[in-house]
Amino acid sequence: MKKILVVDFGSQFAQLVATRIRSLGAYSDICAPEDAMSKILEGDVAGVVFSGGPASVYEEGSPTISRDIFELGLPILGICYGHQLITHLLGGEVVSSVHAGEFGKAAFRVTNPKGIFEGLPSESVMW
Q1: Helix/strand/coil (H, E, C) string of 24-81?
Q2: How much is the pLDDT for 60?
Q3: If we measure between CA atoms, which residue out of 17, 26, 98, 5 comes closest to residue 52?
Q4: What b/e readout covers 40-61, taking b as 16+ CB neighbours within 10 angstroms?
């Protein structure tokens, strides 16, 4: 049975994310970042969720994962820290917002309107 793998980067919500995935009818499993590639290579993973966590991608010793994961062709969703880690590993820059804290409105700009961003306005406000 194919599953969605939730990679736990220290989030207090990793269990909740896995439970929500299961409530949608998909099997999910949670693992530590250092175990993710071996779990994926077992061949039964249909997609990956990178959870949040309290660290900064720029802290020494912060949790990470092999960049090789992006070469496997699996869909990957990043939540909070997971999203920042994807950005960092793929060469982007993670910066603090001057307009919003961790929660609240934020400006969203689409600079490459392909894939899931196709058809979206070039600028919008997100939460």
Answers
A1: CCCEEEEECHHHHHHHHHCCCEEEEEECCCCCCCCCCCCCCCCHHHHHCCCCEEECCH
A2: 93
A3: 17
A4: beeeebebbbbbbbebebeeee
pLDDT at 112: 86
Is the pLDDT score of 101 beyond 70? no
End-to-end CA distance of the chain: 35
Say whether pLDDT at 97 is over 70.
Answer: no
Integer Cα distance of 127 and 125 in angstroms = 7
Name the one residue in this structure whose structure tokens are 């699996």: 74
**In contact, 59 and 53? CB cutoff 8 Å:** no
The number of C-alpha atoms within 13 Å of 119 and in the hemisphere containing its C-beta is 2
Predicted pLDDT of residue 70: 96
pLDDT at 103: 62
